[in-house]
Amino acid sequence: MPYDLVGTPVIAAPMAGGTSTPAFVEAVHRASGLGFLAAGYKSVGAMQADIRATRASGARFGMNVFVPDPAQLPPPASVLAELEDYRLQLLADARRYGVELPQLRLDDDDQWQAKIEALLADPVELVSFAFGLPGPDVVAALQRAGSAVLATVTTAAEALQAADQGVDALVVQHASAGGHSGAFLPASGLQAGGSQASGSEAAGTTAELVAQVRSAVGLPLVAAGGIMDAAGLDAVLRAGAVAAQLGTAFLRTDEAGTRRLHKDALADPHFSRTRLTRAFTGRQARSLENEFVRDHPEAPVGYPAIHHLTAPIRAAAAAAGDAERLNLWAGTGWQQAQAGPVADVVRGLLAGR
Known about the structure:
Elements: H1 3-6, E1 10-12, H2 22-30, E2 34-38, H3 44-57, E3 61-66, H4 77-89, H5 91-97, H6 112-121, E4 126-130, H7 136-145, E5 148-153, H8 156-164, E6 169-173, E7 179-180, H9 206-216, E8 221-224, H10 230-238, E9 243-246, H11 260-266, E10 274-277, E11 285-288, H12 291-295, H13 305-320, H14 342-349
Parallel strand pairs: 1-2, 1-9, 2-3, 3-4, 4-5, 5-6, 6-8, 8-9
Antiparallel strand pairs: 7-11, 10-11
Helix pairs in contact: 2-3, 6-7, 8-9, 9-10
C-alpha cells in the first residue's frame, strides 16, 4: 500500500463500541485525515449501514474487522473452568446494580464469515484486521475485489506472519496504545499471565517498535500507540512509518461517539494511571485504572466470553454514571487528549507540515 493510497499521515483508529461513527469518520476526512469504521460488536446490517452513511458523506474511509480466535470457540475445558469461576467473582458487581449475569456465551465469532462476504460483495477501499490474521485466501479475495488489506501486529514475528499472508500494509501497535491489544502470538510484548502494566512499564517506544518491524519486513507501516501530538507523529515517521494511527487523541473530540462518562473520566485527575487488564473482556486492553480493574487483577483469558459476561455490568455502570466499573479505554498519553472539534486535533498533529 503506497503512501499515496493512505493520502495522509494521520489516521483515526477504528474504535469499536460506538466511538468511530460515520459522523466522526467524516469529520476526520474533512480535517485532512483518514478514518476507519469499526465492524466489531456490530451486526452485518449495522456495518453495512455505517458504510452507506460514510459513503454518502463523500469521506474516504476504511473498515476494521475482528478476527475470531478458534482456540476460544469454544475454549478448552481448563479455560472453561476459569471462566465459570470468574463469573462467580462478578456476581458482587452485578448485585451492585441489580442486574443478572448471562450464562457463558462460547460461540460468538462476531459474524466473521458474513462480514467478509459482505465486504467482498460491496468492497471498501481499505480493510484492516485486528486480533489475528484473516488467512491468505481472505486477503487475496479482498484484494481481487479492490480493497487494500492491513493487518495489526505487535512484534516483528507477527509482522513476518502477516507479510507471508500477502497483506498490503501493517498497523504496528505498541503496548502504550489504548483499548485492546492486537497481539495474536504468545509473548508478544505485553506482560503475560494476570500481571498488569502501567504506562511507564510499556517496553521501548512506538518509534522503536516501528524500526524493529521495518528491519524485518518491507511493507508500508502505520504506527499506533501513545501518539498524541506533532512530535509523536514526527518520531514514528522518522522511524519509517508512512502514517500514524491515533485513537486516544480523538476520544474527547466533539464528533467522537465516546460516552460522555468516558470523555469526562479522561479529563478527571482522579484517574492517574492506565493499566493493561483482561477484567472487562478477557483480552488484554489498556484502560484507565478504576475500581473494577483493581478488583479483578487476575481475570482469565477468555475473549469474547468475558466481554459478554461483563456487558450488563458495564451498561448498568454507564446508566448510573459510575466510571469506576466502566471500561475506560485509554492509551498512555491520555492526559493530552483534547476536547473540541476533530479538526483542531488534526491541525495540531499536522502543525508545521
